[in-house]
Amino acid sequence: MTTISIIGSGNMATAIGARAAAHGHTVEILGRDSVQARAAADDIGHGATVAEYGTKPTGDIVFLAVLYASAVDIVTHYGDKLAGKIIIEITNPFNADASGVVTTPGNSITQQIAAVAPADTQVVKAFNTIFRDVLASDRKLDVFFAGGNAKARVRVSALLESMGLRPLDAGGLETTHALEWAGILLMGLARNGGGFGITLGAE
User: Fold this and answer.
1) What is the pLDDT of residues 35-46, one digit of tens each?
2) Three-state DSSP class for 188?
3) Is 51 exposed, middle or buried (CB count within 10 Å of its CB: 0-12, 13-18, 19+)?
4) In a domain, 108, yes or no
5) pTM, to two decimals
6) Cα separation of 76 and 61, whole Å?
7) CATH number, domain at 46?
8) Which candidate, 101, 166, 169, places its Cα nearest to that of 140?
9) What are phi and psi of 62, to 5 degrees?
10) 78 Cβ partners below 8 Å, 6+ apart?
11) Is the residue at 190 inside a domain?
12) How far apart are CA 120 and CA 16, in angstroms?
């Protein structure tokens, strides 16, 4: 097992951290609000720790579990402290009523993050098609992911499998905009009879 770092301390950060910790990984939380970060670590349990926001993450795999509007700025702020790491970003760049996305093909949030990250940092999108409470249930779930290079995606796949999830590799950075629209599909299904306990999968 490994150490993963999570930048962010909201509901998804806690759900991801709890699932990772329950499956034997060491979890580190880095949040702007130190009180909220400590609360998230306490909720995660299993010895989860808190590091000062802005310091170099301990883990080689770093989850960026923040709102899309701040994601690029946060990666810019961290700069070289993210060099050589794999960033898994979970954002959904929804418009105001979650009927569409604010990004365009070739300019997904994942691609925007990759553009400001250190050259040897690989950025992968995952978890944007899973609701927080579904993830927290610890069911076997399909996780679509895309981005980075092939080597990074192999590592992300292995991490997801170790968390009791089924990884579904959708390809490189060019596919990440499609995953953003998959988030809209999930939201539409949930709002129109499916409820917020559903998830997307493949057979």
Assistant:
1) 999 999 999 999
2) helix
3) middle
4) yes
5) 0.96
6) 17
7) 3.40.50.720
8) 166
9) -120, 120
10) 7, 54, 57
11) yes
12) 25
